[in-house]
Write a structure and sequence with these properties.
With 272 residues, the protein is mainly alpha-helical. It has two domains: 20-122, no CATH class; 127-271, no CATH class. It has eleven helices and five strands. The chain has helices at residues 32-49, 55-66, 114-119, 124-127, 130-139, 143-150, 153-167, 178-193, 221-224, 232-237, 245-271, and strands spanning 82-84, 92-94, 203-204, 207-209, 214-216. The strands form two sheets. A three-stranded antiparallel sheet has the order 3-4-5, with no helix packed on it. The protein is globular. The termini are far apart. The mean pLDDT is 91. The structure holds iron/sulfur cluster (2 copies). Residues 9-10, 18-21, 120-122, 124, 150-151 line the site of one iron/sulfur cluster (SF4).
Length: 272
């Protein structure tokens, strides 16, 4: 039973969705272009081959014979049944889902099985507040960026904490349109365009895998001769690696300017 006012983060509206827990971003090449190719091919082949109960296995074998299996973390499953749900390629999702197959639920054929796939709720549902959920789903319209951001709890909570402190209230989600939406979108787009992103192959957000367990890749402030930055959590979420104190300062400036611009614009718009 869903609570009143429940916000479905997986499929929030007709313009985007998330497929992160199906392994979407765990491919060695998880650039937008590469994922679009992957999902587009799968969707086409699924529609061509899957007509009856056992066909998904034929589909699976075909996909495995043509796709690169290289992953960031071998321990995280990347499900081949993730594809596009709509012709416009705005929503990613499960090709085995009953809504995609005239009511027939084929998820039992998957690695996790129907029960796990249908019942999974990721930590973002619990830790991201209702206001933050409503705001973020207004700010980000595109599936690729949306999935990266909605699963990054620290990034979301830190940004809203900084702007809330500056405007002395929780920003009202209705305000995320026009210029305010653009400024917030600029911030969340750093998830893709951050200039100080580490190139280490085994990094994902703040985590890296040391061969046996997931560890947080902390920033070595001592080495940079710097105090721990107030934006430390944001830096970690952005997979940062700073080689010099100047790079660290530049990173702080990018974040500071965005937050201050948002605060100023929010206050000015409120007066007008
Ligand atoms: S990571 Fe969370 S929001 Fe994304 S599809 Fe999975 S459960 Fe849904
Ligand atoms: S079968 Fe499960 S893991 Fe695979 S795409 Fe569907 S919901 Fe995701």
């Amino acid at each position: 039973m869903k609570e009143e006012g429940f916000i479905h983060l997986c499929q929030p509206d007709s313009g985007k969705s998330c497929g992160a827990c199906c392994g979407l971003y765990n491919y060695a090449d998880s650039t937008r272009e590469s994922l679009v190719d992957r999902l587009r091919n799968r969707t086409r082949i699924f529609r061509e081959t899957v007509k009856k109960a056992n066909d998904p296995k034929v589909f699976l074998n075909r996909i495995r014979s043509i796709e690169s299996p290289e992953r960031i973390y071998d321990t995280i499953h990347c499900c081949e049944y993730l594809g596009f749900l709509d012709d416009e390629e705005k929503r990613v999702g499960c090709l085995l889902h009953p809504l995609q197959n005239d009511g027939e639920d084929m998820r039992d054929l998957s690695f996790y099985g129907r029960e796990l796939c249908a019942g999974h709720i990721c930590p973002s549902y619990h830790f991201i507040s209702r206001d933050e959920k409503l705001s973020l789903t207004r700010i980000v319209d595109d599936w690729y960026l949306y999935g990266l951001c909605i699963t990054d709890i620290d990034l979301v909570k830190e940004y809203f904490r900084f702007i809330s402190e500056g405007i002395c209230e929780v920003p009202r989600y209705e305000r995320f349109e026009g210029r305010l939406k653009d400024i917030a979108l600029d911030f969340f787009s750093l998830k893709i365009s951050w200039p100080f992103r580490s190139t280490d192959a085994n990094r994902f957000g703040k985590y890296y895998f040391d061969g046996s367990q997931y560890m947080i890749s902390h920033i070595d402030y001592d080495h940079l001769g710097y105090e721990r930055s107030r934006f430390d959590k944001i830096f970690l979420s952005l997979t940062s690696s700073f080689r010099t104190p100047d790079e660290l300062r530049e990173g702080e400036e990018i974040i500071r300017k965005n937050i201050e611009e948002f605060i100023s614009c929010y206050k000015t718009d409120a007066i007008l």
